[in-house]
Design a protein that fits this description.
By secondary structure, this protein is mostly beta strands. Helix content is 8%, strand content 29%. The chain contains two helices and seven strands. The strands form two sheets. A four-stranded antiparallel sheet has the order 1-2-5-4. Strands 3-6-7 form a three-stranded antiparallel sheet. A hairpin with a 4-residue loop joins strand 4 and strand 5.
């Protein structure tokens, strides 16, 4: 016998506009952080978010995930240079209900795909600046 607590269905896609990005200090190896209003999939957070410099090159470093998968942090291998960067987030990132960015887990496959689903290969870009 098992007991389960059932809550209301999650029928909202993760929305990058509701995420809070905290920029790092230039010259430090402090983290750039993203805070989500809900828990995200841990395994996908490890691989679906990356940091690019203004020249388009990927920044090397390591990721830490905490606060029940509601915070993603990236620590660079070398100190941040002052300037602009972008977090590139794959649209495959999902919440714990399986909802992707721009696409719900439960979809009616008989309907025409949404614009978001059609552009699923284009990552979301979130700009930030190291000061």
């Amino acid at each position: 016998q098992r007991e389960f607590d059932v809550i209301a269905a999650d029928r909202e896609s993760p929305n990058p506009e509701t995420w809070r990005v905290t920029s790092p200090q230039a010259g430090s190896t402090g983290a750039v952080a993203v805070e989500f209003p809900e828990s995200m999939d841990y395994g996908l957070l490890l691989h679906a978010v990356r940091v690019n410099a203004s020249d388009g090159k990927t920044v090397d470093g390591h990721v830490a995930i905490d606060r029940n998968e509601k915070r993603w942090r990236f620590f660079p291998a070398l100190p941040w240079r002052a300037g602009d960067y972008r977090l590139l987030v794959d649209r495959s990132l999902e919440d714990l209900a399986g909802n992707h960015i721009g696409r719900l887990f439960e979809v009616d496959t008989r309907k025409r795909p949404s614009v978001a689903a059609q552009s699923a290969s284009t990552p979301i870009a979130l700009p930030f600046t190291a000061h």
